[in-house]
Amino acid sequence: MNDLILKSVDELAPLIKNKTLSPVELTKAVLDHAEKSQDKINSYMAFYREEAVEAAKKAEQEIVQGNYRGMYHGMPIALKDNLYFKDKVTTMSSKIHKDFVSDYDATVVRKLREAGVIFTGKLSMHEYAWGITNNNPHYGPVRNPWNLDKIPGGSSGGSGAAVAVGASIASLGTDTAGSIRIPSSACGIVGLKPTHGRVSKYGCYPLAWSLDHIGPMTKTVKDAAGMLEIISGYDRNDPTSVNVAIDNYLGQVTGDVKDLVIGVNEDYFFNEVDEDINKLVRASIQKLVDQGAKVETVKIPTLQHSEWAELVTSLSEASAIHHSDLMNRPDDFGDDIRFLFELGELPSAVDYLQAQQVRRQLKQEFNDVFEKVDVLISPTLPIIAPTIGENFADLNGKKVDLIDNIIRFTGPGNLTGLPALSVPCGFKGDMPVGLQIMGPAFSEGRVLNVGYAIEQTQPLKGRKPLIFTNA
């Protein structure tokens, strides 16, 4: 196996910049491995080998001529298949859109292209991004590289699995109730949901307009920071885009957490959590305290209503988007998401508007908390990813509903639109565990820095997924 695929962007970029590594060599290594692992992992929807190699040759030529564009120049990356590529099929991993071709690039695709990224293909997702297992009825399940019987999380499960297994050097996911952070936690990688409006969603097929986000899924925190610098910025094509200056995120990633005030909410974010996950997250918090951080317990009363508000909002908005197809071709949806779209026809206008009032109150309470603390830390997931095909998860010996539990701690970030990062913090058995860091609006640099401080404690201890050790 080629060791290049194990390296992060942060490790590879200097090699490409100083011309000791060719983008062509790297691209071929990643594609070879991606194609070889596809039978086991099933993370790709489509490979762009020919174009990728040509783009890599062009990148190499530019770099040789002294036109190096930055850390992502020459990096082979595949993206989630709900982001539009001009003149390419974008399926949303669905049957209905299996032949859909966009006539323009999504804004994030254009920005990555301008940064010199080499696109190796499109990655699988839960159909229409409306699910957390990535067990796709049309294209088969994506498998978790740490344990091939387990789900990778979703909806960006192809992105999570591909980055974890080295089939893509980094990726982008989309996140409506946790779809970046859930697979990042389950696959042992870094996933950032930026502040709502920080990254343009133009050219991304929507799931729920007011909850959707696009963000990096990477091997390391620095890789995420570098990608965020590329994809951030105001876009007049996206009505939810916010005109706020782009920060130097990489410059803020120092690992210094002296005098950082960490908020811990016991009532919601540490309630009903797998005992081993609970211990790992608290141990990571203690490591930050050992470096000079402080901990403060905080109350956010409206969190008790957040799951209801998240579900009413996402169900209603998603069903509005798919209403016509649900009426005219219901059998072309997978059973699981057809049920959700049907369910989304039930909430009334009163229900939806009441959910928005909960949301408004929740935002205010989070704002109040962030006047006292710098970040909130919690588990990303209260459970470990279950076996593919199961609708239940194990929570301290009890069987609990999978969907309800897996989005419990991620959903509030979508309702509030606040930045939230998942970073690995250890293992339960052979499965990685993620820790979530939330911060005030547009504080991605701070959130990433705390994630970096945790990453520096080596929570993964150099372990690699099973598929590597058996390669």
Describe it for me?
Belongs to the amidase family. InterPro entries: Amidase, Amidase_CS, Amidase_dom, AS_sf. Keywords: Transferase. The chain is an alpha+beta fold and about 475 residues long. It has a single domain, classed as Amidase signature (AS) domain (Amidase signature (AS) enzymes, Alpha-Beta Complex). About 40% of the residues lie in helices and about 15% in strands. It contains 17 helices and 15 strands. The strands form four sheets. The chain has an eight-stranded mixed sheet with strand order 6-8-7-14-15-11-9-10. The longest helix is centred in the C-terminal third of the chain and has 23 residues. It is globular and about 60 Å long. The termini are close together.
